[in-house]
Amino acid sequence: MDFQSCVNIKKEWDIVGARQLGRDIARKIGFGTVDQARIATAISELARNIYLYAGTGKICFETIEEMEQKGIMILALDNGPGIKELSLVMEDGYSTSGGLGAGLPGVKRLMDEFDIHSEEGKGTEIKVIKWLR
Amino acid sequence: MRIPILKLHNYLLISIQIDLDDQTAIQFQEDLLSKIHESGASGVVIDLTSVDIIDSFIAKVLGDVVTMSDLMGAKVVLTGIQPAVAMTLIDLGIHLQDVPTALDLEQGLIKLRQELEE
Q: What Pfam family does this protein match (any one) (chain A) (predicted)?
């Protein structure tokens, strides 16, 4: 798929850069302040996961316009070690980094659609969508 | 980037007005604890009126700094959390239950006075 814009995640500051760009795109699509905050927070969690667990990767954004629906799709990609226990990371409170363990289950609640593919030794791909209501 | 910490009588006042990155948040944690130690402040208000995103990391840093300050003997109140931020935190599953909060700076100072029974 051809994405509108991508942010490479290499250093910690890129987490802020990614969520700011995502928020701008969300505002342009027409999302209100609460959904803008939800989208920016989800991006922050996804970008931090890339930075913490894979080292580098990227976050891509795409505006979706279907017949009667408009929304934002965010793709988080990395070539990191992958996630061994997918069901564990989707549990609230599970963390290997001393964090709150709110990241991925939180992202799932913040967004409308959540899709994760991960292969050990190859990387992780997470696709999320928020629809404009 | 450093977040300014102001002293007012025996309180410390902080207004966070930037988009917090992880490093700045950690630096702030250290700065605040040193400032409490240096100044002997008994109360702290951290105003979040201008903060439009708190993710799980920033929430952890803020929650931790409240507990750390408490260990040192200073009470912290968080003020001005925006509606969108409050909704997002709950979606994330973060409840910050043991963290004292108030609507704005003024209410925060009143709460501090009550907590410290001054």
A: HATPase_c
Nearest Cα residue to A44 out of A28, A20, A61, A27: A20
Give the C-alpha separation, B35 to B93, whole Å: 31
CATH number of A5-131: 3.30.565.10
Q: What is the pTM of this model?
A: 0.91
Task: List the 23-82 stretch of A: residues with Cβ below 8 A of B.
Answer: 23, 33-34, 36-38, 40-41, 44-45, 48
The model's pLDDT over B60-102, given as tens digits with 9 standing for 90+, comes to: 999 999 999 999 999 999 999 999 999 999 999 898 888 999 9
Residues in Cβ contact with A84 at an 8 Å cutoff, skipping those fewer than 6 apart:
A120
CATH numbers and ranges of domains, chain B: 6-116 (3.30.750.24)
Reported ipTM: 0.89
B88 touches chain A (CB under 8 A): yes
What's the pLDDT tens digit per position in B12-40? 999 999 989 999 999 999 999 999 999 99
Nearest CA in chain B to A91: B93
